[in-house]
Amino acid sequence: MKALLFDVFGTVVDWRGGVAREVATFCARHGITDVDPAAFADAWRARYQPAMEEVRAGRRPFVRLDVLHRENLDATLAAFDIEARRLDSVDLDELNRAWHRLDPWPDAVPGLKRLRQDHIIAPLSNGNVALLLNMAKRAGLPWDAILGAEVVAAYKPDPASYLRTVDLLGLAPEEVCMVAAHNDDLHAARACGLKTAFLPRPTEHGPGQCTDLAADSNWTWIAADLEDLADQLDAA
């Protein structure tokens, strides 16, 4: 195995906590007092897959995730009875970049640094290049390259998203491992011939999370976190 590709939202960074923090700051700045920031983050995220499905299904051309997030932000504001047209578009664009400023899980940076010693590491995320680059600079994520949906013009779990990314590295699928906290991501990657590594993030969706609490298949590796995955690969 020569490379490890990583899901990012939820696997490497805490999207819910980061977005909720930014929403709380935004609401305080604009005197909005009746919005639960965590509930807003959940509602915004709930539009993520349906928006990408419009692209995957061919009903609209590929657009980067920043565009989908911005459209979804307007829809979420409306759902919370916040009139986006009365807010400064510059402020809304800045709130949309909350997804660029997410914090890594505590094990993420040390784990990635260890994994990078013997493997190529890169994101295979639905995030766009600027988003992933800004996130990496802020959080100290030591990627060897920025790869993912925008680079290959395909959103996971479209097989093209995995296979085109592997091809960009000049590798065969069996030389690459997909690392994710989401079983569905790994099912799609394994169907494309990649190795797989699962690690749980039991608070990704908050204290009531009931999905992806454990591996649902015999993945190539099952780890407690990224440091544990590094331990297992060191011992292999």
Automatic annotation (TrEMBL):
Gene3D superfamilies xref list: 1.10.150.750, HAD superfamily/HAD-like (3.40.50.1000)
Parts of the chain that traverse the membrane: none
A molecular function (GO) term: hydrolase activity, acting on acid halide bonds, in C-halide compounds
Keyword field: Hydrolase
The UniProt record lists the keyword Iron-sulfur: no
Pfam families in alphabetical order: Hydrolase (PF00702)
Signal peptide extent: none
Protein name: Haloacid dehalogenase
